[in-house]
Design brief:
The chain has 224 residues and is α+β, with helices and mostly antiparallel strands. The chain has 6 helices and 10 strands, in the order E-E-E-H-E-E-E-H-E-E-H-E-E-H-H-H. The strands form 3 sheets. It has a 6-stranded antiparallel β-sheet. A two-stranded antiparallel ribbon has the order 2-3.
Amino acid sequence: WFTALDKRYIARICFGIETSSLDPEGEEIARGPIPNEKDVFEILPAFSGQIMQRPPAYSAIHIDGKRAWQLAREGREVLIKERPVHIHAIELLDWQSPYAIISVHCSSGTYIRSLARDIGLALGTRAYVQALARESIADFARKDATVCSGPEEKNGPADSPAAGKANSGTEMAEKTRAALKPVSREHFKAIGIQTAEVSGPEILHIRQGRALPGRMVDLHVENA
């Protein structure tokens, strides 16, 4: 469910160089001139909406039973067909030549590395993603994230040598609970799951793992 949702990224694109993997880990394969800020700003709207995109050779896409990145590392030629993706919004946040920082709101399946490559080519140069951060998936945002805690530790009275560790564990558990989103219709809808309200015998059916009544099959979120 989560992997099928829209995503938001912040990316730092380096212009003037393209690498084999379209990130800093790959080998340099081409160079080009450094564009100016105005040209970068003006080209971005061309990448809004539905566009065709060719995923990177170094990706997890399956080709003949193997991941594309495995074939690429074996030195074999990797041919991946273009496919449609949707860019809901793309914005230039900062420019410090040769780096551009952009924000991207896109559909699932969009490769920001491919987007950087294609922006570079559209400007008559080359480019790769120097750094990338996923800011959110649907309404689940990185800014709301916290470190998950393990089971709360009970290490004796408050004046024991282990008390500090226990208090720290309890504090982390409380922080984790505070970060959790409630189980609500809105959040099920955010990840594309239909909901329906049930009562009486229907609750018993669900608790016992039995088939739901046929009348519930066609219920939609809007009518639940």
